[in-house]
Amino acid sequence: MSSVLLFTAFVGTAHSSTSDTDVVKENIFEAIQNIDIVSLNVLLAEGADINEVDEQGNTALMLASKIGNPRMVKIILAHNPNINLQNNEGYTALMIASQQGQVHIVEKLLSLEADTSIRNMDGFTASELAIRFGQPQTADLLNSRAQTSIAR
Hints:
By secondary structure, the chain is mainly α. It has helices at about 1-15, 20-35, 35-45, 60-65, 70-75, 95-100, 105-110, 125-130, 135-150.
């Protein structure tokens, strides 16, 4: 019973603003930052734009990739985001996960055909970022995928 009340209170709060889109946008990023899976699911069920960006141009997938929570990433990916979008600095979710050493997320993004050739504003690919930030396991994974693609 208390979960129903909590859900009702949460949804009621989300709709009390003059602009529902602004509230949903702020809340989806807040839900990710707080690793609040229940709120993330509610917001997505309410129609939050999975490709919405914050002030730095980050999408929900980019932020979840940085945090490294596989459950949140799985929920976001279930809503078919554009996995190759770039933020204001040219980073994709794959680049962010690679730089952070989030191997499990890199594997998932690669399985969904994330583009490994995209470069950020500084000219680095996901593999080069993994190397620069001391993530050899991630770099090896990206490099082996690139070699497999070339061999096809």
